[in-house]
Fold:
Amino acid sequence: MTALLRLAAVVARILAFIGAAGVVAMMIHISLDVALRNLFRVSIPVTTEMVARYYMVATAFLPLSWLELRREMVSVELFDFALTRPLRRISDAMVCLLSAIVYSSLAWTTWHTALSNFRSGTYVELAAMKMPVWHSYFLPPLGFAIAALTCLLLTFRDLQPTAPEETA
Structure:
């Protein structure tokens, strides 16, 4: 179990790094577009599409498993203060299991959307060109599927009698 959690942590860190790289690339791309537009009256024609279709999608969906491993997703803990440690672990395991189910259904749904867009070769028409965007439809199912697997691992870890506290 520990080896699987370490592997999940490595994969989660890689995906979080890619999401962070998306933020940096988005910042550079937008800054360059603004600078060129203000200094030379020239605009990069694909800025809006790149930001909306690639950078923001990678930033939003790829780091999900990293957040789950670190237990930094939004949570409401109304009764946790009153639970004993074993009951809190069971509660955490049930929340992780529910999260895994939700992530799995989201991965399944977005996977079918990605395949549909892949088959049709989805693109965005710009003034002088067609920009393919079907690639970006595969990022959400990837993020959701890895997050679902991570939540399942955390569920099993939380149900162990001597579960270690944190992994990431």
Remarks:
- Strands lie at 123-125, 130-132.
- The CA atoms of residues 92 and 158 lie 7 Å apart.
- The helical segments are 2-40, 47-61, 64-69, 85-120, 139-159.
